[in-house]
Amino acid sequence: MLLTLDHLTVRLPGTARPVLDDVTLRVAAGEVVGLVGESGSGKSTTAKAALGLLPGTATASGTVRVDDADVLALTGEELRRHRARTVAMIHQDPRAALNPVRRIGDFLRERGADRDRAAQLLGAVGLSDPERRLRQRPHELSGGMLQRVVIAGALAARPRLLLADEATSALDVTTQAEILALLRTLRAEQGAGLLFITHDLHLAAAYCDRVYVMYAGRIVEERTAQAFFAAPAHPYTRGLLDCSPTLGDTSRPLLPIPGRPPSLGDAFPGCPFASRCPDAEPACETWRPEAAELPDGGVAACRRAPAAVPTATERNLS
Amino acid sequence: MAVRIARRLAGFLATLLAASFVIFAAVYAAPGDPAVFLAGGRDKLTPERLATVRAQYHLDEPLVVQYGRWLGDCLHFDLGRSFKYGDQVADLITARLGTTLELVAYATVLFVVLGVGAGILAAVRQSTWVDSAVVGGTTLAASVPSFVAAIALVSLFGVQLGWFPVTGSGRGFAGTLHHLTLPALSLALGALALISRVTRQAMAEAAASDHVEAARASGVPEREIVRRHVLRNALGPIITMCGLVMAGMLAGTVVVETAFGISGIGSLLVGAINTHDFPVAQAVLLLMVAGYIAVTTLVDLLHPLLDPRVKQEARTA
Amino acid sequence: MTALTLAPVRVPDRRPVGVTVAAAVLLLVVLAALLAPWLAPYAPDAIDLSASLAGTSGDHLLGTDSSGQDLLSRVLHGARSSLVAPVLLLAVAALLGVTLGVLAAWRGGWTDALVSRLTDVMYAFPGLLFTVLIIAVFGTGTTTSVLALGLAYTPTVAKYTRSLALAESRKPYVDAYRIQGMGGARICALHLVPNLGRAVVGYLVVLFGEALMSLATLSYLGFGAQPPSSDWGLMVQEGQAAVVQGALLPALVPGTAIALVVVSFNVVGVWAADRLGRQA
């Protein structure tokens, strides 16, 4: 297994509930895994945990492993090498991720590419005239071009695991499609695993092999992409599907999820989604969510999930 | 960009004109006859001397004409004649300006190296005892007037330890360096707090950028991050503040040159005032103010060149 | 005054031990100044050439200067003028600065433009040079120094007051008074200025240390207090010649006194101004 998060709980001082609460997640080599949730659900923190980039004030329990390295125990030079070689992150806003006063070439060289490789990488991500791009600065390129540069930077060190944090959310739709296709191709060429983080469940289900849905720092459902559309098990997942429009489906009414996404100031004695859940029963308010295996192999953390079977906690997907 | 430069230069000229007019017209604020005042008071005053002064300053003409002629004379380095020395004021100044500029340059090197260095240290070790020590130490240094610092430095390094000479400006490069070390240090000490604080603040802001976090997430070595991302992006405010402080140091030499008995334009000004030699005082003040305005304008003009985004606009505009 | 005036030092928020110590130092200095005639073992101008440049001893706790004057007695007496003069100069600056600032904010238009141009011209003089120009014209002495420095600090106070007054003049109570038919001058004098008082005083408190330093510097240059005054800056100047001869006390005693008071005042002043600012 490439990336293994086991019962990862991360707390920040001054918050009522953990940022990540008992998160268990796997990404196998060569696999594309989606991680979906509203903003503040803990998606980005999950990615940062894989990089060993949790805030200094955070306390974490559980394990984060990439290959065989215990990420949370890495320090100093080992941690730096882990970030430089094993895992690479593609950020949401490419313009913020690049230093405005430095050249594109500097950005790539900093990530371990020499001049030739840098030019070759820019060509591989579909930028024209790579030699000239190397001398340009971020403000001379469009957002889509910059995201290609960021992807080139992420691929520079041939990482085993790619983390794409809302990597295409800031781009227009056609560029988004190009970047998504590019990411999939390049990832396949390098045989790397990809954790694809997005707020868009439809996109994740269409793009990924397997998808995790997060809510209030917890994984509420984990299914293969096909299973999501066929039979979403968790009411939150159903809510997500119901509240976003899909092409060619104009007759279906859009149903927003009532209430607001929970903040870090909200603590929950029971299921965190209970107050917004259409199917909630009084018992849900006190039920500690537990992952239960679904008949088709997925996992859902809902008291009322159909045919719920408690899972072995050490369930191994590989 | 061209418009910006033109506007800035116009502002520079306007300020310079206004300030020089204040320096010029100050004569009329003095109690009594301006001619007597310019001649250095009633002692030893001869009718010939009074006539010379009247002619030199065109005192019989309207104020604006007088100012215009005075300004014209100043531009030709005809700054009048010193009452005390009997020399041309321009000669007095040229003989001393070099030493003052050396002192300012030396002090600038010291406060840039020490101040920016301390600021970087405080920023990198933010919220540790190093940070507190830098902030506390430089704040303390800023609370000590430069003449007290001068005396303390002379007492310790000059008299007690005998490492540095206590007065004069020395000959040759090594001699000058040796003589000007303590003066430059007393001049620089007060600026350390300001410079280190600006450096620390600018670096803290630059360090909060997303691209710094992104670089860290990519495993870029911390030393590279500090140098190429944090410090590089913080340079704008740091360089601006260093330029402003350097410009202000011309005025600081007044005290430090007096304290160390250095013969520069600062001590010339003090001597001129204590001997009522107004033409000299006027000329030195004009020079210092003009230098200050010129350097601050220059800093303002150069500042945007640090940012490639602005430079790009400049090229395309 | 220049744009380089040190920004108020941001000392960390917790009420630090330093503030207490600094406040205690200031209290002692003020007491010493008040009680100088009773505390000082000698008259400040008692010359005793036989005891010239004596070191510390039972007779002279802090030694003597080249005229044999007791340094402790001089420093104690000097505390009076050294502490009172900055207060006076800040009073001058406050009077002029608040008037100009409120006028500029209230009248706006060309009044505001004129005040801001005047301010700009004065900011073109770095450091103490504006003060030095005034002294060059009107001659040296304590009164000239205090007035000249007061004038030099005016733009800083005016600028600060203007921004405060501008915000204050937009508050609804000002309109209420205007609707009642009250004149602008009365509203300013009776309501606006008193409401700014706290913040302005806080600002002046922060300036005090610098004002004291500037005045001491002028005295040191021979522009301020004249002999036989025991002004600290002047004492440093008088004691400087002895330093080269190896007698450090005559210059270091008053020099340390200046540094001690300025440091203490900066520590306490910033802390106090912070609180005043927060309550205002």
- The helix-strand sequence of chain C is HHHHHHHHHH
Q: What structural category do the secondary elements of chain B indicate?
A: mainly alpha
Structurally, the number of domains of chain C stands at: 1
CATH topology of chain C: MetI-like fold
Describe the structure.
Helices cover 31% and strands 21% of the residues of chain A. Chain A has helices at residues 43-51, 76-86, 94-97, 104-110, 115-124, 130-135, 143-155, 173-190, 201-207, 225-230, 235-242; strands spanning 3-11, 20-27, 32-36, 59-66, 69-70, 87-90, 161-165, 193-198, 210-215, 218-224, 292-293, 299-300, 309-310. A nine-stranded mixed sheet of chain A has the order 6-7-8-3-9-10-12-11-13, with helices on both faces. A four-stranded antiparallel sheet of chain A has the order 2-1-4-5, with helices on one face. Chain A is globular. Chain B has two domains: 19-75, no CATH class; 92-316, MetI-like (MetI-like fold). Chain B is built from 13 helices and no strands. Chain B starts with a helix and ends with a helix. In chain B, 45% of the residues are buried. Chain C has 280 residues and is mainly α. Chain C has one domain (63-279): MetI-like fold. Chain C has helices spanning 17-34, 36-39, 71-107, 109-123, 129-138, 142-168, 172-179, 184-221, 232-244, 249-279. In chain C, helix 1 (17-34) crosses helix 3 (71-107) and helix 6 (142-168) runs antiparallel to helix 8 (184-221). The relative contact order of chain C is 0.16. Chains in contact: A-B, B-C. Chains B and C meet through helix 1, helix 6, helix 7, helix 8 and helix 10 of B and helix 4, helix 5, helix 8, helix 9 and helix 10 of C. Chain C: This is ABC transporter permease.
Topology summary:
The complex is a heterotrimer of chains A (318), B (317) and C (280).
Chain A: E1 3-11, E2 20-27, E3 32-36, H1 43-51, E4 59-66, E5 69-70, H2 76-86, E6 87-90, H3 94-97, H4 104-110, H5 115-124, H6 130-135, H7 143-155, E7 161-165, H8 173-190, E8 193-198, H9 201-207, E9 210-215, E10 218-224, H10 225-230, H11 235-242, E11 292-293, E12 299-300, E13 309-310
Parallel strand pairs in A: 3-8, 3-9, 6-7, 7-8
Antiparallel strand pairs in A: 1-2, 1-4, 4-5, 9-10, 10-12, 11-12, 11-13
Helix pairs in contact in A: 5-7, 7-8
Chain B: H1 2-29, H2 34-38, H3 47-56, H4 63-75, H5 89-124, H6 129-142, H7 146-160, H8 172-207, H9 210-217, H10 222-260, H11 265-274, H12 278-302, H13 308-316
Chain C: H1 17-34, H2 36-39, H3 71-107, H4 109-123, H5 129-138, H6 142-168, H7 172-179, H8 184-221, H9 232-244, H10 249-279
Helix pairs in contact in C: 1-3, 1-10, 3-4, 3-6, 3-8, 4-6, 5-6, 6-8, 8-9, 8-10, 9-10
